[in-house]
Write a structure and sequence with these properties.
The complex is a heterodimer of chains A (81) and B (642). Chain A is α+β, with helices and mostly antiparallel strands and 81 residues long. Chain A has a single domain, classed as SH3 type barrels (Roll). Chain A is built from two helices and five strands; from the N terminus they run βαβββαβ. In chain A, strands 4-3-2-1-5 form a five-stranded antiparallel β-sheet. The chains are: A alpha+beta (81), B alpha/beta (642). At the A-B interface, helix 1, strand 4 and helix 2 of A face helix 3, helix 11, helix 15 and strand 9 of B. Strand 4 of chain A pairs antiparallel with strand 9 of chain B.
Chain lengths: 81, 642
């Protein structure tokens, strides 16, 4: 899960377990299975997660991030645009 | 030739509002956060000898609406089809911009793309081939730098060229699902009114768009549609392994990604260390104290510098009025003259400095891009109320003026969220109430007390938000936040000044004349002895509940028109010296009541438009109730202490 990653980690999205409407919105913003992201910041108190997707910072609230399963990959593979 | 209608659309932070200002010469608020244009406005524009109507759509990343404002905007676009669309695309955020271009192309309306922030993109090492982009998309792409007005002429020229053409971009999303979409299109084409693009409607049916499905449902549809649609959806899912709705969204994204790779080269540049560390600091746990410091600085600076100005202006004014001292025997004439003199003094010395300073500091903050970082930090805390971080913007805006703040509630996703946020906004002391806090508390009681009142108010706002949120089951509706953070930008003094004027000019044009007329009117009432009758009538009620003289009712009535009137008429009636009529405790009780008792007329009008009568009445009722409870409790506490 995205919420399990630490700051600075890079991962590939495996699955998005959300309703279709939210899924469409996330997809449009670049958050979909197979896309790569880097966790930039995690707000304190299990707060929002700031990720880099396609070179742009995106804030995602904890409960949405909880529904995104990811697989951590090596740092080298991530090229921030 | 019939008038041309140009639609202006673009993602938040693309510079759309700046282009709007370029074209209209009007000044619309430009800010560095998503969701400023919340209403779809159509207005007639004359730009360098060309006449056209310009439709300004709210900033959006996609035509798949997630909030009420986006839904309204899209419906407007379909129902009142413009001749041509100018899409303001951000050269810094190219992929997401192209995503929107692809969606716009599907609508079948001619498009011109303004590739804006072109200079900033170069600075960030992006080299974009606009010609190649134009070729791939099949629509003109004009590089622009809206802040300096570069490329705008060319943009409008191109829009005019295309307005009456049938020029369309390339429908790329069609690849390999074309046959399925065409089958559905053939069915709906027969009964769909001509003004609707049947291709787009068919595509949206596959995307499971609820508005389109509803619209089709209202028409006299052939019964075969449903089964054909289901069949074709299944065929897509079988051949691709994806649900059709997600497949289409994903396709657009992949196409956008592919296009970006084709037209953009990246040269590595090092980002400014200062901005990098500021960015990092403002989103870490140090961000909370930073947020508190930033907000406190805005208020303390406004109050402090405001008081300084006030002293200077009133010193100057008293000097002048001594110089022009007159002695008039006619009581009526003397009332009129002293009314004018007092209202000018109070107006100039309180309203102008406080309002202008607050809006100046706020505009500066607004432009910097800092506020969305605060949203990122505060989202979690807002969820405790059942709201999400997005509600932070309207709430903060409420400190400037409740009216745009209530309109901005449209960016929120659910009906209950909008209602609870609007209720909280009406309790937030806007700049007008800031004048009261500054003019009564900061001057006659102390600066520390005025800040304490702000904190107490914040406590009440959060408490009421929590209670009402809980009683309407807000948590059930709560949807997660997903928000693009804009880059930090160095705010320009010039922009902040223009924005300040746009936000504060009402106080000069609208409020000052009413203040002068109202003061003279009250002065005449006073010499006619009507004020005494009012006192006798309302004294029992006000003295009993709040320990205040009955005549404050007249200030409160004026305050319902514009909140600062409550202070102005108190000052002018009490001859600029409230302490000789009221005790410090009474002043505090009066201020507390004015903070909560009723939304002003402009806010009420906005609430009626946004929330209808019933909910507006509920908000007013809650406001009044809070004012009575707090005013009464404060009075009781003060009398127990003394």
């Amino acid at each position: 899960m995205l919420t399990h990653l630490d700051e600075g980690k890079v991962a590939i999205i495996k699955k998005v377990n959300l309703d279709n409407h939210t899924k469409k919105r996330l997809t449009a913003l670049g958050l979909l299975p197979s896309s790569r992201l880097k966790v930039l910041k995690i707000a304190p108190f299990k707060g929002d997660i700031l990720v880099d997707v396609g070179g742009r910072p995106l804030a995602i609230s904890h409960d949405v991030a909880e529904k995104i399963s990811v697989e951590e990959v090596e740092w080298k593979e991530f090229e921030s645009v | 030739m019939e008038g041309i209608r140009i639609g202006l659309i673009g993602s938040p932070n693309s510079g759309k509002s700046t282009i709007f200002n370029n074209l209209t010469g009007f000044y619309q608020i430009v800010g560095n956060w998503p969701g400023k244009t919340v209403e779809t406005v159509e207005r007639v524009v004359k730009f360098k000898g060309r006449h056209f109507s310009l439709i300004d759509f709210p900033g959006t990343h996609t035509l798949t609406p997630t909030s009420m404002e986006e839904e309204i905007a899209r419906q407007y676009m379909i129902e009142n089809r413009p001749n041509v669309i100018i899409q303001v695309a951000s050269a810094i955020d190219l992929e997401r911009s192209i995503y929107l271009t692809l969606e716009l192309i599907e609508l079948g309306i001619p498009i011109v793309v303004a590739l804006n922030q072109f200079d900033e993109a170069i600075k960030q090492g992006f080299e974009i081939d606009a010609e190649k982009l134009s070729e791939i998309l099949g629509v003109p792409v004009i590089p622009t730098v809206a802040i300096r007005g570069e490329g705008i002429d060319k943009l409008v020229g191109k829009a005019f060229d295309l307005a009456h053409s049938k020029s369309k971009g390339k429908m790329m999303v069609y690849e390999d699902i074309g046959p399925q979409i065409n089958k559905v299109m053939d069915i709906i084409k027969e009964f769909l009114p001509d003004r609707y693009p049947s291709e787009w409607f068919a595509l949206k049916l596959f995307e499971e768009d609820s508005w389109v499905a509803k619209k089709i449902g209202e028409l006299d549809v052939k019964s075969t549609l449903k089964s054909v649609l289901e069949e074709e959806k299944a065929s897509i899912e079988k051949s691709t392994g994806f649900q059709s709705s997600l497949l289409i969204v994903n396709k657009r994204r992949l196409i956008a990604e592919r296009i970006v790779n084709e037209v953009r080269k990246i040269k590595p540049v090092s980002r400014s260390k200062l901005i990098e560390s500021l960015d990092s600091l403002s989103t870490s746990s140090y961000g909370y104290p930073l947020l508190a410091v930033v907000i406190a600085t805005v208020f303390v600076a406004t109050l402090g510098v405001g008081l300084l100005f006030r002293n200077m202006i009133s010193y100057l004014f008293f000097g002048l009025s001594n110089y022009f001292a007159f002695n008039i025997a006619n009581p009526l004439l003397s009332a009129i003259l002293s009314g004018i003199q007092l209202s000018l003094l109070v107006g100039l010395s309180f309203i102008i400095p406080v309002v202008f300073l607050f809006h100046f500091f706020f505009s500066f903050l607004d432009d910097s891009g800092y506020l969305p970082r605060a949203v990122f930090l505060i989202d979690k805390a807002m969820r405790r109320i059942g709201l999400n971080g997005k509600a932070f913007m309207p709430l903060l805006l409420g400190y400037g003026c409740n009216v745009p703040a209530c309109v901005t509630c449209r960016v929120l996703e659910g009906e209950k969220q909008r209602f609870v946020t609007a209720l909280m906004i009406t309790l937030i002391p806007c700049a007008s109430r800031m004048i009261i806090i500054c003019g009564l508390i900061a001057i006659y009681i102390g600066t520390v007390t005025s800040l304490a009142i702000y904190l107490f108010n914040l406590f009440v706002v959060l408490l009421i938000g929590m209670i009402v949120g809980w009683s309407v089951d807000l948590h059930c509706e709560s949807t997660g936040l997903v928000m693009v953070l804009p880059p930090y930008r160095a705010p320009l003094i010039k922009n902040a000044l223009r924005k300040t004027w746009a936000r504060a000019k009402d106080f000069v044009y609208l409020a000052m004349p009413i203040i002068i007329i109202g003061t003279v009117f009250l002065k005449i009432l006073e010499i006619a002895g009507i004020m005494r009758h009012l006192n006798v009538l309302f004294d029992p009620l006000f003295v009993g509940i709040f320990g205040l003289p009955g005549y404050v009712l007249s200030f409160l009535l004026f305050g319902a028109i514009r909140k600062e009137f409550a202070l102005v008429f108190l000052m002018t009636t009490l001859n600029g010296n409230p302490l000789s009529y009221l005790s410090p405790n009474q002043i505090i009780v009066f201020t507390l009541i004015t903070l909560f008792y009723i939304p002003c007329v402009a806010t009420l009008t906005t609430l009626l438009r946004e929330f209808r009568l019933n909910r507006t009445l509920i908000i007013v009722g809650i406001n009044l109730l809070i004012a009575v409870i707090i005013g009464f409790s404060a009075h009781v506490i003060f009398s127990l202490i003394s």
